[in-house]
Design brief:
single chain, 9-stranded parallel β-sheet, 311 residues, alpha/beta
Length: 311
């Protein structure tokens, strides 16, 4: 076990273990708490939630694989998140949340001051749940006035394996992604999206100024949508650096063409970054050349996000 982390998987937790976890949370000595797939009583789940509420050090909370198994637990987690101010990444993958559960959790998510990564994969969500999630992707210019009451906006969102969402819901998400001021990573793998939804997402990616990673593995795509994505990558400047298309009915040639174009864009960006760094060290270089003005792009989610992404 790494310092500052508690990681337990697939075990039945005793009352004594729960007390130790809660004590560590209250002492602010835990940065990562992962209880994925563990069994614990309703009472002990409540104790953990109270510990989460009191913790000022907890940055990542992993309750994947059925920990939040009923509405009562959703309510307790929501109350904990209303008080907590430190959690940056919340993983609920494989929880039977449903739209009703997300509706209970959403008020806490929408005002949390630190939350930037959310995993709701395989949570039995439908279109209503997607509508709520869109509210966590604030568009440019939408945060004035209520900024102090709003979440910072998600930078990483996972919605894998939610087959109850229809093309209408995915279309609504595509609009939110197109205008999001923050989102950098979007995982939609193993949803039955098809070519129509992929076309909407291509428009969203072309419009987004921040999206760097899009995972469409196993989403029922064909060469038709791959060609649309290829045209998007080839003809529109985007922030996209990684597009995952495996487990689809797409020819290897098309996948390779898309990958090559994304790699070329990344290499050009790195070259521009080096030139910017050189000019910062020597401000006299290219001082009179208007074309030397550039924007330095960076990849990754920064130091605020932890590396752990287990499901």
């Amino acid at each position: 076990m790494l310092p500052g982390s508690i990681q337990i998987s697939g075990e039945t937790l005793s009352g004594a273990e729960i007390r130790d976890i809660c004590e560590s949370l209250r002492e602010n000595s835990v940065r990562l708490l992962s209880l994925r797939g563990c069994q614990l009583s309703e009472r002990d789940f409540g104790h953990v939630c109270r510990g989460v509420a009191e913790s000022r050090s907890l940055a990542q909370l992993n309750l994947n694989l059925g920990i939040v198994s009923n509405i009562n637990r959703v309510k307790q987690l929501a109350e904990a998140l209303k008080t907590n101010r430190s959690v940056q990444s919340l993983f609920l993958h494989g929880s039977p949340l449903t739209d009703a559960g997300l509706a209970l959790l959403n008020p806490a998510l929408s005002i949390h001051p630190s939350l930037v990564a959310l995993d709701l994969g395989d949570c039995m969500l439908g279109d209503e749940g997607i509508n709520l999630i869109c509210g966590l992707l604030p568009p440019d210019g939408a945060k004035s006035g209520l900024a102090s009451l709003s979440a910072p906006g998600l930078k990483e969102l996972t919605l894998s394996a939610n087959p109850g969402v229809t093309s209408k819901g995915w279309g609504r998400l595509a609009i939110a992604v197109a205008h999001s001021s923050q989102l950098r990573v979007l995982n939609l793998d193993y949803n039955p999206l098809g070519d129509q939804v992929a076309g909407m997402l291509a428009v969203a990616v072309a419009s987004s100024r921040t999206l760097e990673v899009l995972d469409l593995e196993g989403t029922g795509l064909t060469n038709q949508s791959a060609q649309t994505l290829l045209d998007m990558v080839e003809n529109y400047p985007t922030a996209l650096r990684t597009l995952i298309l495996s487990e689809n009915n797409i020819s290897p040639e098309l996948q390779q063409q898309i990958s090559d174009l994304l790699s070329e864009g990344e290499e050009e960006e790195e070259t521009e970054a080096r030139e910017v760094t050189a000019r910062e060290k020597n401000p006299w270089i290219c001082q009179n050349n208007p074309s030397s003005q550039m924007v330095l792009m960076t990849s990754g989610l920064g130091d605020s996000l932890l590396a752990e992404t287990e499901m």
